Amino acid sequence: MSRALMINGLTVPVPVIQGGMGVGVSLSGLAGNVAKCGGVGIISTAQIGYQESGFEEHPIETNLRAIAKHICRAKEIAGGRGAVGVNIMVATRRYEDYVKAAVKAGADLIISGAGLPTVLPSLVEKSRTRIAPVVSSIKSASVICRLWDRKYKRCPDLMVIEGPKAGGHLGFAREELERVTDTEYEKEIQGIIAVSKEYGTKYGYQIPVVVAGGIYDGKDMEHALELGADGVQVATRFVTTYECDASEEYKQAYIDAEEKDIVLVQSPVGMPGRAVKNAFILGKKDKPKDWKCHQCLAKCNPEKIPYCITDALVNAVKGNLDKGLIFCGTNAWRAKKLEHVSEIMEEFKTAAELSH
Ligand SMILES: Cc1cc2nc3c(=O)[nH]c(=O)nc-3n(C[C@H](O)[C@H](O)[C@H](O)COP(=O)(O)O)c2cc1C
Questions:
Q1: pLDDT value at position 286?
Q2: Whole-model pTM above 0.85?
Q3: 45 FRET partner, CA 20 to 30 A, in 19, 51, 84, 151?
Q4: Does ligand 1 have an atom closer than 6 angstroms to the CB of 168?
Q5: So what CATH class is 5-246+335-354?
Q6: Domain ranges in the chain?
Q7: Sheet strand arrangement including 272-276
Q8: Is 165 in the pocket of ligand 1 (CB under 6 A)?
Q9: How far is the CA of 329 from the centre of ligand 1 (A)?
Q10: What whole-number distance in Å separates Cα of residue 256 and Cα of residue 267?
Q11: For residues 86 and 20, what is the distance between their CA atoms, to the nearest angstrom?
């Protein structure tokens, strides 16, 4: 018997959420296949339309259309199994329109981090879309639960705890990332679980909690479940799959990387991020003369940024690595070969059964 993840009436047979990965790393191909294996496949909406015609002229409108296209395609691949959701960063320019597009397209779940999703409940009212904030500390968990409780008389359907080993932009100061130990962060995880219990009790609902950041194999998952989590969110492990939407070059960069090649970088958006060290990180970066803003973040000042984060991530996902930022989690170096999503999901399913 496996332990299913229950997200407010939505049953997820294998308690694994594949973390959203932008730009273009988790689209319908990866998300649909994770759902097909009984997990939650998450499509990243960050510049989701980058391959579509019209993106250069009207990036936001093209992205909004691409959300519906990818949710629909992922659900087709899934064939009714698992669940399909989206990751929408709070920092996204016109965040509310992205949420509305995802709800309209029938997303089962919206996960929102990179800021606190203070207005998210008002955007999903009367829909079947469940909502989950991403939190990294007891403090941020308490703030968002208190706010939703006071303003919307509700609690989250799910909480995602993203720790310091995650990939992409990170919700910690650089010093914290370098200092915090596993044992210290495990205390934080248990504190966040306590916050979720407190607010769940108030609403007669058991808020499920998933742990993200550094979960790579069945053993890592068993450990997270022992700490009291109901499931895990996994991103880096899914990059080196045949089904992942990134280019072969992107996947090969993970396979070729050694542990010493996984580094912290300061992203132009002002947050630290983690990536594979390459010529782009080491070299001089500047915007081309004919550079045009792609309208990704609400708070970017195009005059001041050293390089454009959209360009760097799009270059990477397309395989133009010398001009690309290859986001990854601390465990990217552990990939030795390409795998099928089904093999990874089988490993996690077994781990969940063992922990039951
Ligand atoms: C390549 C890559 C891109 C990511 N992009 C996003 C993103 O666009 N939005 C977001 O909220 N999290 C993003 N993340 C974080 C993941 O969703 C996930 O929570 C985290 O990486 C889990 O840790 P793991 O990679 O060690 O499994 C990204 C992670 C990776 C590896």
A1: 75
A2: yes
A3: 151
A4: yes
A5: alpha beta
A6: 5-246+335-354, 248-323
A7: 168-169, 272-276, 262-266
A8: yes
A9: 7
A10: 23
A11: 7
